[in-house]
Amino acid sequence: MNKKIIIAAIVLAAVAAAGAAVFLLMYSFVLPNPAAEIYQDGKLIKSVSLSEDTEFIVECDSGYNKIKVEDGKICVEEADCPDKICVRQGKINGSVPIVCLPHRLEIRVVGGSNNVDA
């Protein structure tokens, strides 16, 4: 094999390994004191701890979302929106937010501290 091809393959493998390591670190990171912030129309309406199991309903002019916290995760258990994407998204504990566009609702999981150490 040509020496340039071997070097390029080694560099490509190193970059792929580094990318996979960053990906795994990001998704295995545990937030300290995890909580969920619930926003409606861009305004924070409620903050709940993920360490305590609970259920509650968030209502708006166009309907409702039944939100459930269980085993350190949060989900929209039931909603009367037409597409129900928020319900199908399932339980989250820090990855991507849950969004219900028809009800203008967003659920974000946050840690107890906003300080990020790179």
How many strand elements?
7
Write the H/E string, N to C.
HEEEEEHEE
Number of folding domains? Answer: 2
Rg estimate, integer Å: 20 Å
Strand order, biggest sheet?
2-1-7-6
Helix/strand/pairing class, anyone?
Answer: alpha+beta
Low-confidence regions:
113-118
The CATH class label of the largest domain is: Mainly Beta
How can the largest sheet be summarized? Answer: 4 strands, antiparallel
In CATH, the homologous superfamily of the largest domain goes by the name N-utilization substance G protein NusG, insert domain
Annotation field: number of helices: 2
Mean pLDDT: 86
Please tell me what the overall shape is. elongated
What is the percent of helical residues?
25-40%
By CATH, the topology of the largest domain is: mini-chromosome maintenance (MCM) complex, domain 2
Percent range for β-strand residues:
35-45%
Query: Between the first and last Cα atoms, what is the distance in angstroms?
Result: 40 Å
The CATH architecture term of the largest domain is: Sandwich
Task: Sum this structure up briefly.
The chain has 118 residues and is an alpha+beta fold. It folds into two domains: 1-30; 35-110, mini-chromosome maintenance (MCM) complex, domain 2 (Sandwich).
Question: Topology, please?
Answer:
Layout lengths: L2 H26 L6 E6 L2 E7 L4 E7 L2 E8 L2 E7 L5 H4 L9 E3 L4 E6 L8
